[in-house]
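User: Before I run my own analysis I want an independent prediction to cross-check against. Here's the chain; please return only the structure tokens and, at the end, one sentence I can use as a sanity check.
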Amino acid sequence: MIKKGMRRQIVLHYILVVFLALLLVEVIFLLAIRTYYYDSVYSKMKNHITTAESFFHKYEIDSDNNSYQLQVLLDRFELPNTELEVLTLNGDMITSSTGFQPDRTITTSDVPEAVGGSIGRWVGRQSGTNESVMAVSKMLQVHGRDTYVLRYLTSLEGINNDLLNLTLLSIGIGAAVMAVVIVFSFGLANSIVKPLNNITAVSAQMAKGRFNVRIKGNYKFEIGDLASTLNYMAQEIVRSNQIKDDFISSISHELRTPLTSIKGWSETLVSGGYDPEETKLGVSIISKESERLIGLVEEILDFSKLQQNQMKLSIGNVDVKVLLQETILNIWAKAEKKRIHLLLECEDGIYVKGDANRLKQVFLNLVDNAVKFSHEESSIELSAKRISATETAIMVRDSGIGISEAHISRVKDRFFQVDALNGGTGLGLAISQQIVELHNGTLDMVSELGKGTEVTVILPLTEPQPEVNSEGVTQITATFPELDDWEA
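Assistant: Structure tokens:
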């Protein structure tokens, strides 16, 4: 007995469907064969009766002797292995081709049908012998005077034996087909169940945290897709765990470095005995490292909000030129240390709808990365232009170290760092991309190792909305004329 499970369900359902189909086909086939044989016998006897009737209508037998007429009928229209009977309209036998004349009345249904004017047919068991027979009867009128019932009676035992043999043969063929189907159904069930059992076993190990195991086997169709999906899932989990471990290691280092400076200078200042300059230097370092810590924490908090869809945007009309000018002001000091030139090229009147602070966060991150990975005495270009009636493209282009093809596809992944030695959490670009997507925009990167990187942010345009002050005077957001020298 097959134990409960998918294998049992497949085998039983498959066998049931094929069995019912075979049973239906065999029943229809046997009924058709039986009908064909019986109709053939009936047609033969019917044709002889019709021929006899036509004969007596066409040729007049000049004799008043009924016995002679009946003898002519028996001699001319007798059929092999078939008894020809001549009956009265009441069903009493007058004569037969066998010479046997029972003293009983024929009461089968074919005789009344013949008397009614049609050709009667009856199939059943003959009384006395219990033999299966067929009778065909028709009323026959001779010269308009004498009316008889002409009845053919034949045995169906031979036909029934042939039908029985044919039935047994068809059952044997059906049994052979069922045997093949059973073997095939077990093979089909195993081809489905065994891979699923293997996948289930491997999945159970994955559920226990063993993500290094893989589903082995070249499975096809949906099962192959399932195995590939689970293997890919395990690979991604391993990768995510590695990224998480790398992130923890990186963030621990990033946090420890400023904390060490803060702790060291705090203890130094507490001990006292330092001149104002040294004290000022220590306080400055503590302040700087504190800002660095705050930046790291805010970056992690921003990422957490984005992942949980909890980041709120303060939507308004943003002047892109002002946004880029403010970005340059914020990053100028850092660029100046490496003697990097910041160039701005922006069309006037480009406005986008969004959160100005969050968009500034995006471009600060992009320009900060450009400064970090650019050579001294190089330049960084910021540009913005309309690319269609509904969109603007804002680009940050540097001529720094660039990014290799192996890393360019992963550089926007969370926690990924091209160069861990430069510090950071590896979240900046991931956060920037999600902020841009919240503004219905896109962020694309093109880079070549050793030649530089170009980042393009595409945002939807909006029409500028004038602001009205308390005195009813229309105002437009001011620009920074002092930055005009930086424009290319």
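Sanity check: The first helix runs from residue 6 to 58.
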